[in-house]
Structure formats: C-alpha cells, structure tokens
C-alpha cells in the first residue's frame, strides 16, 4: 500500500473520529436539557391530535378513505421539514457564541463540525420520526403495502430531512444570529403548508396549485402515501404522476446546492 493511500486513510479516520466527537457533544447537550427535546417531539404529536380529531371530521378524501391515514404521511414530512429550525438555531448559536471559531482553531478535521452537527440532527430526526409513527399507530394509521415499501417511505422522509438539514446549516452559518429564527420560520412554514399535506392542489388557484404540486415536500408526501398504501389526492400533473421519482430528485438537488455552500461558508466563516 502506498504512502499516499495510508495518508488518505488516516485523514479519513481522523475526520470520522472528530466528527463523532462533535456528534457526542451535541447529544450530551440534549441529554442535559431533555425538556427542549421533549417539547420538540410533543409539538407534532399535538398537531396530529388537533387535525386528526378536531378538523378530521370535516375533511373528505377523494375516493374515500380514513382521514388520519391520509394525514399521517404528511405529518411525517412536516416533522422533517420543521427540523430546519432546530439545525439553524444550534448552528447559529455556536457561531454567535464563538464556539465554532474555537473549533476551527483546534487541530481537528475541517469537516468535523458540520458533519458532527448533521449526524446529531439525523439521529434526532430518526427519534422524532419514530415518535410520530408510534403516534400514528395509536390514532389508527397503518401501512398496507408491506414492510419493504414502508421502509422505502421512511427512507424518502429521512432523505428529505438530510437535504434540508444542509440548508439549515448554511442558513445558520450565513445569518449567525439565533434570534433570526423567525426569518427561518417565514421560510419553513410556507414550504410546509404550501403543499398537498392538508389540501389538494386542485382546489387552489392555478398558479398556487402548480407551486404546491412542485413543492419538494409534496413529492415526498405523495410518494410516502403511495408506498404506505394510504389515500391521497392523486393529480394529473407530471409532478403528481412521478412523485416517487421527484421525492429522490428534489433532495439530491438540494444537497447538490447546499452541501458545497455549507462547506465553503464554514471554511471562509470570518472572511
């Protein structure tokens, strides 16, 4: 084995070890402040109960079907999308407090901070999705296409979260102010609600319905409903007819944009 191969291998092991150190640091923060994690997990559960039991009786699903089975895939995706706020707050908080600069001055892999942050947030997202699935099962939601398609649906949901996570990291490095979370909410809430989660794009004005159908979240929601065997809105547009494909393409496009932007911004943080 050449010296160059050994050098690359040692750098990779170094980067993985440093990234895992940052991940454990973020997880230890959550362990010391469990109330923040619990509130974050209970909020989407409250939304499910509100929509499922307060508004569900007035909702009619095209072709019939149980409203809560229709609702849950959309709520799974909403949980993934709203995770941007958690990522942004943590990253911008570290930047504002000088923690990120301290990490950058240490002899550690330059990728460790953002990689560790992404790993910690993905673990948190897996936990949040597990809680939401348990909540769905408790209110009567089921998957009907077998474990294979159900796991594929979960994979698409986590892929969306992973792509949006890097958007949150980039925003946190650019804005640098935890108090600006309101600005991120202005971005996230339209992304979540201007979709096919609660209303059919066919009932919206033409231009607004087109935006909703081409929303990355709508693609993931439609694909998840299809893979879980849950009722959905359908639709005649190209985006609606190819939702599983777009549920992969949209996150990959977001990753192609925001991953290099995040890495570049981190490396030039004080310039």
TrEMBL record:
Primary location class: membrane
Keyword Transit peptide: no
Stored InterPro entries: ABC2_TM, ABC2_TM_bact-type, ABC_2_transport, Nod_factor_ABC_transporter
Membrane topology label: Multi-pass membrane protein
Claim: Transmembrane is one of the keywords in the record: yes
Residue ranges constituting the ABC transmembrane type-2 domain according to the UniProt record: 35-269
UniProt-annotated location(s): Cell membrane; Membrane
Keywords: Antibiotic resistance, Cell membrane, Membrane, Transmembrane, Transmembrane helix, Transport
TM region positions: 34-55, 75-96, 126-144, 150-173, 180-199, 243-263
PANTHER family (UniProt xref): NODULATION PROTEIN J
Assigned protein family: Belongs to the ABC-2 integral membrane protein family.
Protein name (Swiss-Prot/TrEMBL): Transport permease protein
Originating species: Sphaerisporangium flaviroseum
Lineage: Bacteria, Bacillati, Actinomycetota, Actinomycetes, Streptosporangiales
């Amino acid at each position: 084995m050449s010296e160059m191969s050994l050098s690359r291998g040692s750098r990779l092991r170094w980067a993985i070890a440093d990234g895992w150190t940052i991940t454990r640091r973020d997880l230890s923060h959550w362990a010391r402040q469990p109330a923040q994690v619990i509130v974050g997990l209970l909020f989407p559960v409250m939304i499910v109960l509100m929509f499922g039991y307060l508004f569900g009786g007035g909702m009619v699903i095209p072709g019939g079907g149980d409203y809560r089975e229709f609702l849950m895939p959309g709520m799974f995706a909403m949980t993934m999308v709203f995770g941007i706020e958690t990522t942004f707050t943590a990253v911008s908080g570290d930047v504002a407090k000088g923690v990120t600069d301290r990490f950058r001055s240490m002899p550690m892999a330059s990728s460790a901070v953002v990689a560790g942050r992404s790993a910690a947030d993905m673990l948190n997202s897996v936990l949040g999705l597990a809680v939401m699935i348990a909540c769905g099962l408790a209110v009567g939601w089921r998957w009907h296409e077998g474990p294979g398609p159900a796991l594929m649906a979960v994979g698409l949901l986590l892929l969306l979260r992973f792509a949006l996570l890097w958007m949150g990291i980039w925003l946190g490095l650019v804005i640098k102010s935890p108090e600006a979370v309101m600005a991120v909410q202005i971005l996230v809430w339209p992304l979540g609600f201007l979709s096919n989660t609660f209303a059919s794009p066919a009932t919206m004005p033409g231009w607004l319905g087109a935006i909703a159908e081409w929303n990355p979240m709508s693609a993931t929601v439609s694909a998840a409903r299809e893979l879980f065997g849950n009722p959905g809105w359908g639709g005649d547009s190209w985006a609606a007819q190819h939702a599983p494909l777009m549920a992969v393409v949209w996150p990959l496009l977001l990753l192609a944009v925001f991953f290099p932007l995040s890495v570049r911004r981190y490396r030039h943080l004080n310039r």
